Amino acid sequence: MSEIQLAREPGGVVVVTLNRPERRNCLTLALWRRLAELYRSFADDPEVRCVILTGAGGQFCAGADISEFSTVRATPEQAEAYAEAVDEANDAMLKLPQPTIAAIAGYCVGGGCGLAVANDFRIAESNAIFSVPAARLGIVYGVKETRNLLNVVGLTNAKRILFAAERLPAGQAQEMGLVDELVEIDALASARELAGRLARNAPLSIAGAKAILGQLSDGTKDLDQAVIEAVERRAMESEDYRKAVQAFVEKRQPHFQGR
């Protein structure tokens, strides 16, 4: 059985399920690389309107599979290659033009928490536990994962999460901004409901907004005006825009095609 399952659902919603329940869905080096490939493949797929990431067996993701570190992360060179694989998976999610949602239950720890904050939205069940235990393992959380965490929770909360390395219950994680929506049960059902609403809106508008917000939140460089102008022009010149204007005049709902 595949350790990453993919389900394409009506309306252009795709559900990606981490499927190692016996290991709380922790990720091997091969799976980090597979996630990056998978999310990159979604970017140019016009049938994909929204992507949900979740985990099997009532757990989201317990982070990296530390049991393989002695073979895949034993030298500085291997550690660098491993970090690159993690960054590539997170970047592929973060930079995906389509909106992304993490549906979280159980453990959301370490690299799993990194995956969650690389998504646009996080919906968690009340039993979810969040933690970044790097300070208990003697390692430094990656720059890109730290930046994503900072953008989501702010400086003081990011320090609290990284310095204390505590396990945070879902309610406290929500207070910090780590969780957008808290539900008693079935985060996946709530994620599907949100995904359906997002998928009905103009894909080019969402892609443009996400590109601009991504640049604004980066904080390390000047805005790339060429990229901004390109996403604005693509939307302005699209068939979706023309039909949406016509639908507005005729007081009916537009049907967007992403072109």
Automatic annotation (TrEMBL):
Entries under Pfam families matching the protein: ECH_1
CDD domains (UniProt xref): crotonase-like
InterPro entries assigned: ClpP/crotonase-like_dom_sf, Enoyl-CoA_hydra/iso
Domain of life: Bacteria
Designated name of the protein: Enoyl-CoA hydratase-related protein
Source organism of this protein record: Aquibaculum arenosum
